[in-house]
Task: inverse folding
């Protein structure tokens, strides 16, 4: 038994390590100051796919991402860890997409890929934290979904058994295939890059990357087809441009605020013994503590 | 028609706190736009739901009773909401930003082609102008949430699509009885008209509910640590102080991401919202998404070696120093003064 698996991944700005230069003077986000990374929970999803492939040799993992040209970086990152091929969905028409327009575009790309048994993605991306795109793709494809997955316990012909995390416990569910599963950060971490795969896929590129970088040893791309990363536009996946990007997004951003807090009169203390002694006495006297 | 709907989460016959909070918010939004408040209950044990929710000012309660609807699974609950909304055309739909709400909300929004905003920290009613088209929309729902890792706050609107959907975390809104004698109408729907047999394709094999070990939501005192605490070992200091004060221990998202504390302790927009009488922030810089979850604390002490940490702006006491020196002193002088 082998499975066709699609892993959905996103390249995100690393919002967890926001430095002082992350915001511009006008209060907008300085994306250039933030490193672009493989969305952490999408790596957990990739690991679940790799574990299925370990147990069911012959299974095939396709990594699918939507984003600008440089998002091809995470496709290579996935190949270095054991994915079989990568697809970049990229087009100006996708710009400004909210979760609904994003899920429409990705669902069209999934339809184009081939027969699939299991679609895996991270629970949510750290730049939006919405957790919406996975379930919305499942709905558009008309397949069941399992969110907050922590471990795939068993995959067999036509069925899958998954343990998922609840707020106050765990639940084991069984679903028919095909199914879309979103993987929680509490699942197994992704294995590191494999040195052999790193050598093999180091020069894997999309067609745009090859043009931009003026690569002249073009022959290797015809002799080694696995180095060609697939690149698709709106037209390639037969998507309706009206349903993509800003025009396909029911939600609009009315405004963005860089919030400044109502500053209080703070008492400033240096942390000397006398000051802490005084503070504790004050808090005890007014019944805040004690 | 065009009313405000709240999806109720029900566990063993009891309506969840987050749903009660949303009913309270829904009631005030309904008063502002001049519509009615409706609630949806789908499950098995629903006998006491009406008496639980009517005091929040629910005008109509939609009941879907079937043993297969509890525990929650995605597809049948989705079908219920989608079909009901096709009949009722709500203008607003609110759900908890819980594991259920975040599973159900996007599925329903995709089926209806309507917009959904996750983890809102504030909901308001107001007008909106699309300047390009010169169109003015009256009484839209402003869905306000920190975004981009909590570094900015975004105001989202859905001008053209209905319902306007939003999820809100537990504890963000306050629950308040509207009128203890309020009575609305109960509508029992035939489940078979809404749900298809194939919606039950997914089966629950096993379910373990554990009482959460961490319960800081109702702690009157919280000692909370951020990335600046530096390590899991240093977090021990926070536990020591909490122990002495009888406090709970919380953490910022950065501290949780760094592995210093468990996820259940995360305070902020994507964690828990708390309102203790004393909040001691240790090594927390104060991203918006964290402050959204603790700014209503009565008294805030910030301990930070950066005198310019943003959280200091909302703190009542700012202690500039390392937690390794300040916390032991707090323990020492608390003990000395309570003897």
Result:
């Amino acid at each position: 038994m082998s499975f066709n698996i699609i892993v959905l991944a996103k390249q995100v700005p690393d919002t967890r390590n926001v430095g002082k230069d992350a915001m511009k003077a006008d209060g907008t986000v300085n994306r250039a100051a933030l490193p672009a990374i493989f969305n952490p929970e999408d790596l957990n999803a990739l690991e679940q796919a790799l574990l299925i492939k370990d147990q069911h040799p012959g299974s095939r993992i396709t990594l699918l991402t939507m984003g600008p040209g440089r998002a091809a970086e995470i496709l290579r990152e996935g190949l270095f860890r054991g994915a079989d091929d990568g697809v970049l969905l990229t087009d100006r028409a996708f710009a400004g997409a909210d979760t609904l327009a994003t899920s429409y575009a990705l669902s069209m790309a999934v339809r184009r890929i081939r027969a699939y048994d299991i679609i895996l993605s991270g629970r949510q991306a750290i730049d939006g934290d919405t957790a919406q795109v996975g379930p919305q793709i499942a709905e558009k494809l008309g397949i069941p979904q399992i969110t907050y997955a922590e471990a795939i316990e068993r995959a067999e012909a036509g069925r899958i058994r998954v343990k998922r995390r609840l707020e106050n416990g765990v639940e084991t569910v069984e679903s028919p295939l095909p199914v879309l599963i979103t993987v929680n950060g509490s699942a197994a971490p992704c294995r590191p890059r494999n040195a052999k795969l790193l050598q093999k896929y180091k020069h894997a590129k999309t067609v745009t990357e090859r043009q931009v970088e003026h690569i002249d040893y073009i022959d290797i791309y015809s002799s080694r087809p696995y180095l060609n990363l697939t690149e698709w536009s709106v037209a390639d996946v037969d998507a309706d441009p009206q349903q993509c990007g800003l025009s396909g997004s029911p939600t609009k951003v009315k405004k963005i605020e860089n919030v400044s807090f109502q500053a209080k009169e703070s008492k400033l203390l240096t942390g000397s013994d006398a000051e802490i002694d005084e503070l504790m006495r004050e808090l005890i006297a007014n019944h805040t503590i004690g | 028609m065009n009313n405000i709907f709240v999806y109720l989460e029900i566990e063993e016959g009891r309506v969840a706190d987050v749903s009660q909070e949303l009913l309270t918010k829904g009631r005030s939004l309904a008063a502002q736009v001049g519509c009615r408040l409706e609630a949806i209950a789908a499950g098995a044990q629903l006998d006491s739901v009406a008496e639980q929710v009517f005091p929040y000012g629910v005008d109509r309660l939609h009941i879907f009773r079937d043993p297969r609807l509890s525990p929650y699974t995605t597809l049948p609950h989705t079908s219920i909401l989608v079909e009901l909304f096709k009949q009722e055309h709500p203008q607003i739909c609110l759900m908890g930003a819980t594991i259920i709400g975040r599973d159900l909300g996007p599925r329903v929004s995709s089926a209806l082609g309507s917009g959904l905003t996750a983890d809102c920290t504030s909901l308001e009613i107001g007008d909106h102008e699309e300047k390009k088209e010169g169109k003015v929309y009256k009484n839209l729902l402003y869905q306000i949430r920190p975004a981009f890792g909590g570094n900015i706050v975004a105001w989202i609107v859905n001008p053209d699509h209905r319902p306007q959907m939003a999820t809100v975390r537990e504890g963000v809104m306050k629950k308040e009885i509207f009128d203890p004698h309020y009575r609305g109408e109960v509508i029992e729907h035939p489940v078979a008209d809404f749900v298809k047999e194939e919606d039950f394709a997914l089966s629950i094999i096993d379910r373990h509910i554990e009482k959460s070990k961490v319960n800081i939501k109702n702690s009157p005192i919280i000692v909370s640590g951020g990335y600046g605490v530096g390590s899991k070992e240093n977090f021990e200091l926070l536990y020591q102080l909490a122990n002495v004060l009888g406090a709970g221990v919380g953490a910022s998202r950065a501290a949780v991401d760094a592995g210093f504390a468990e996820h259940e302790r995360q305070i902020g927009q994507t964690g828990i919202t708390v309102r203790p009488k004393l909040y001691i922030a240790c090594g927390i810089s104060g991203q918006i998404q964290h402050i959204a979850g603790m700014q209503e604390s009565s008294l805030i002490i910030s301990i930070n070696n950066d005198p310019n940490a943003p959280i200091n702006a909302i703190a009542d006491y700012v202690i500039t120093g390392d937690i390794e020196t300040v916390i032991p002193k707090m323990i020492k002088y608390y003990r000395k003064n309570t003897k």
